[in-house]
Q: What sequence folds into this?
């Protein structure tokens, strides 16, 4: 068919998370309860770190940014998914789809890179404590905070540019509940083999390398801590264990989705649901539950602002 005779796609239709109405209602109720409980907690973490002058160490600065990234990330997919559950046709415009895809990878890529920055911070603090104040000075900290945002933007804009160059002439049914690279690319009216390789290299390989690098760095840190006899040994092990949990929660689903050919699997939607809706809100909470200083500051802020 001639290119000029093709129908240009202006909107996409989601197939949704599942066709079962009972499961959809269950997902809606559980997701809504989860958001009502966890999202305010993440906002409270951010307010605590901002308001408490005692939480000035780089770790808390990074934790505040992680909570902000996760809270922002949770608004990209979940609200529309909850609305679409009760919609007969789950329609999204082409421009809105590209916008959703951009912010999904912008914030997600930024969070991955922030975890790398936090791993470097823990390595210096635990393995090179005498140099910590020199290496992690305020100027370096702010540069390290800017790097994930810039890296996430570059990562995301590459994805968007590659997709914008593809022609879409139908069909327009996305086998998902949100716009993501694997499903959108499959609807292009052209051979996407080369684009898929670029996407796998951009998202998949980068994710895998970061994941393996982070695991290696924390293995080195834990070995160093295990050999030491310092008073803060248990605290260091607790902090590193928390970071490793977050790494598996964030990188596991991403590796499953982006490091393989873009072929549909039965587990894709379930993994995507946890990756985009559940895990982002859990990350800061896990950090907080394992950090005594933040918990103490949150209690003080709650008593001062709410009770008093």
A:
């Amino acid at each position: 068919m001639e290119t000029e005779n093709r129908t240009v796609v202006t909107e996409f239709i989601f197939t949704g998370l599942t066709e079962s109405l009972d499961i959809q209602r269950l997902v809606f109720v559980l997701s809504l309860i989860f958001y009502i409980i966890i999202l305010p907690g993440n906002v409270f973490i951010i307010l605590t770190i901002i308001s408490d002058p005692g939480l000035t160490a780089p770790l808390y600065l990074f934790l505040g940014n992680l909570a902000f990234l996760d809270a922002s990330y949770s608004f990209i997919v979940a609200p529309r998914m909850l609305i679409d559950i009760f919609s007969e046709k789950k329609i999204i415009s082409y421009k809105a789809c590209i916008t959703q895809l951009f912010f999904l990878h912008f914030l997600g890529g930024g969070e991955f890179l922030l975890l790398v920055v936090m791993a470097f911070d823990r390595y210096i603090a635990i393995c090179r404590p005498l140099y910590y104040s020199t290496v992690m000075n305020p100027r370096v900290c702010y540069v390290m905070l800017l790097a994930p945002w810039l890296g996430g933007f570059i990562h995301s804009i590459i994805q968007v540019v590659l997709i914008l160059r593809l022609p879409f002439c139908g069909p327009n049914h996305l086998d998902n509940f949100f716009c993501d690279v694997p499903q959108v690319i499959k609807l292009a009216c052209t051979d996407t083999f080369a684009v898929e390789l670029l996407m796998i290299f951009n998202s998949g390989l980068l994710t895998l390398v970061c994941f393996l690098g982070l695991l290696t760095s924390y293995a080195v840190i834990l070995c160093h801590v295990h050999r030491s006899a310092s008073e803060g040994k248990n605290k260091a092990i607790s902090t590193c264990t928390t970071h490793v949990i977050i790494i598996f929660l964030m990188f596991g689903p991403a590796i499953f989705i982006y490091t393989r050919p873009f072929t549909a699997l039965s587990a894709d939607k379930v993994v995507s649901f946890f990756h985009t809706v559940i895990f982002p809100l859990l990350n800061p909470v896990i950090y907080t539950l394992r950090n005594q200083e933040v918990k103490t500051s949150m209690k003080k802020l709650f008593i001062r602002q709410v009770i008093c």
Observations:
- Residues 3-307 form a domain with the Rhopdopsin 7-helix transmembrane proteins fold (CATH 1.20.1070.10).
- The first strand starts at residue 11 and ends at 14.
